[in-house]
Q: What sequence folds into this?
């Protein structure tokens, strides 16, 4: 299976079309004084400010050049029952002797580029880092057939590690990457050395710390008040996709909602908001939604206990954070570190803290 170098190069006609759409963008004119809408920060005024910046100051080519500083590749892999898939990935090797191979798995609405801030820290600390675009995301091909679950995602990214010659490796995963990490530990226990959850039942309610009480409150708020996106993307992926595929401003607003509400007061710049948006808009925002349809939360089976040594970096703004005693019901937790800053996008919001945990945990479990 040949590995070929890859560079992002969005065609000029695609950029011309984008600029025309931005020029003709139509924002709501009857919401200037509304006080009933969702409190997520995605106001007409905020969207207009980012749109004005996008039209006048933002340069995709500059962002593209920055992204292409990451060494990227393409490889064809074969997934049983689904045929060949072209997989895009970033692969950056450490200069350190005996470096540890590390698989960095993103989720939605992220991308392989989430590794950008944390990469130099990990390379310096002695890790060869591989960050794939999951099937259907970014520049990786989406399977055409139904039934492609996280188990198949795990098979796909494991094949990349095998192609690169990594017989054993460690895994870091957030969002969907966390589920895929669990599958990697289950499917390839001899290769996956360490990896970084549903509410369990207790005979007696545990005594929770203040951090854990806040985590429970956030977790329940997310599952009861913020979960509609999941149901929409899982039940109507193609239908929603038409709207976001045709409207860069619509895709921006959908992205801003998640970045604002899932982070811990991180000061997202207009450039960051736009680049994260375009990494879904240019390849097409519809295909990542297949993951929600194929891994329907209402149809998931009971999650088996994860025997692989598991580490958790607990960030206060993570909406799906659970108490340690819950996590220990589902996985072999051997490392747990709580932080006072950071949210769902920890590798972007607080890369030093996450990297510090990864270095400590992975080096202690690499034998």
A:
């Amino acid at each position: 299976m040949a590995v070929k170098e890859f560079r992002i190069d969005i065609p000029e006609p695609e950029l011309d079309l984008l600029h025309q759409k931005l020029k003709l963008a139509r924002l709501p004119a009857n919401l200037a004084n509304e006080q009933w809408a969702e409190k997520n920060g995605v106001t007409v005024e905020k969207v207009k400010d980012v749109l004005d910046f996008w039209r006048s100051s933002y340069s995709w080519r500059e962002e593209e050049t920055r992204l292409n500083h990451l060494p990227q590749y393409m490889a064809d892999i074969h997934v049983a029952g689904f045929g060949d898939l072209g997989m895009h990935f970033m692969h950056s090797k450490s200069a350190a002797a005996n470096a540890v191979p590390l698989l960095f798995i993103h989720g939605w609405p992220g991308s392989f580029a989430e590794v950008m801030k944390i990469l130099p820290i990990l390379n310096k600390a002695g890790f060869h880092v591989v960050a794939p675009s999951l099937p259907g995301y970014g520049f990786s091909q989406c399977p055409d057939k139904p039934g492609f679950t996280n188990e198949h995602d795990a098979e796909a990214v494991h094949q990349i590690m095998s192609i690169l010659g990594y017989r054993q490796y460690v895994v870091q995963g957030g969002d969907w990457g966390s589920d895929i990490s669990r599958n990697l530990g289950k499917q390839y226990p001899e290769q996956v050395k360490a990896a970084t959850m549903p509410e369990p039942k207790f005979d007696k309610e545990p005594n929770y710390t203040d951090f854990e009480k806040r985590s429970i409150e956030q977790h329940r708020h997310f599952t009861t008040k913020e979960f509609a996106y999941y149901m929409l993307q899982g039940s109507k992926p193609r239908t929603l996709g038409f709207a976001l595929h045709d409207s860069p401003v619509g895709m921006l607003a959908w992205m801003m909602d998640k970045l604002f509400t899932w982070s811990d007061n991180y000061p997202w710049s207009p450039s960051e908001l736009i680049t994260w948006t375009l990494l879904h808009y240019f390849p097409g925002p519809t295909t990542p939604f297949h993951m929600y349809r194929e891994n329907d939360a209402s149809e998931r089976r009971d999650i088996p206990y994860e025997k692989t040594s598991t580490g958790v970096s607990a960030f206060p703004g993570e909406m799906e954070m659970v108490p340690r005693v819950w996590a220990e019901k589902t996985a072999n937790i051997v490392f747990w570190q709580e932080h006072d800053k950071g949210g769902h996008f920890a590798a972007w919001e607080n890369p030093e803290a996450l990297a510090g945990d990864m270095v400590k945990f992975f080096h202690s479990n690499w034998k």
Observations:
- The mean pLDDT is 91.
- The two ends are 29 Å apart (CA to CA).
